[in-house]
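Anyone opening a protein record will find just a pair of labelled lines. A complete record is shown below as an example:
=====
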Amino acid sequence: MPRFLSCTFLSIVVSVVLLLSPLTNARGEQPATSTTKTKQQKAAPGSGSKASAPVKAASRAAHPHQPTAVHSAATSATNKTSQTAHLSKPAKRTSQAHGAGKAASPAKQQQVAHRQPVATPKTTPALQTKKAKKKSMARNTARPAATAANSTSVSSAPLGIEQQISARSAIILDAKSGAELFAKYPDNPRQPASTIKIVTAMIAIKSLKNNEIVDISNHAASMPSSKVFLETSKQYQVNDLINAVLLASANDASVALAEKVAGSEENFANLMTVSARMWGARNTVCRTASGLTALGQQTTSRDLATIFRYAMQHDEFAQRMHEKFITTSYGKVLRNHNKALWRLDGALGGKTGYTVAARQTYVGQFSRDNQTIVVALMGSETMWADLAKLVEYGFKKQKDGQLARVSANPTG
């Protein structure tokens, strides 16, 4: 090759090399830019949008043909950095700021800004908790005093007569006027037990003569106690059987009288129900002459008091009820089951009763200081104690009512 051509070729090669050297330098700066960008992100994790602005500019200058990818990468890195700054503890943020050195001073300012809103919700629940504790302590301190006051008032308040008696149902009536002086569930129907024998005796007094003779059936003799042990082979006077019913509460004498009057106990029970309605008892249904527990049989304390008040207006019935002992024509001594004749002042007469279903029942009449009351109770567990309380309460209530009437009308 001629020397001239070789020189020309070398000059062209040198020119090409000089032309390509700026491009090589530009491409060689790309790793340095990305390295700087990474260091800036690590140094200022909480720098936000302002700290990422130089990084975005540098990346756009280095890669003008990929603006969208670089911008999205920078944005995601910035978002992750800001989220990390919000969720991380203050200790972590401090260590990252120290690791960033002087270049991370803007990050410190933003960390302080991030700490202030985070600290506010922590202190607010604490203050609320303290206030709630103070309020609860104040309430707890005030409660014992209120409880003590309530217990004092409850203990000092006397129990009402309703709570003092065990009877499930009870009533007190003014015997003269029929006015109600006290009532505790007086219309609740219950099994009457032997108190219903007052209806049996009253029908017998009205229907039969005292000297009439009564035959005793096997059905009557088979009645359970209480009984006077009537014998089928003997005959008895009506007078003796009525006394046996009212004083000794004899079941066998009750059935014997029922069969004498109506032919059968069932027919007589229907007559008892009708008679009770005629005497003012609206909720009484009889199924037996003796009061032994039977399905569908019932009465109420109001009905018992009403029936007994009516019966005591008949002298013969009232006289029999007041006897403590009676000797029959055949020599048997009958003792009255009504212990109130011995225990309570002013007792005129009464009828007791007991079955498992009915519990203890009673109806009776009492008189003191020209005042007369009728007391009936049902479903009692302490009958005599209940009766004593009801009698005292009834006379006190009657006396208070009389004084109130006198004070209201002094001229009368």
Notes: The radius of gyration is 54 Å.
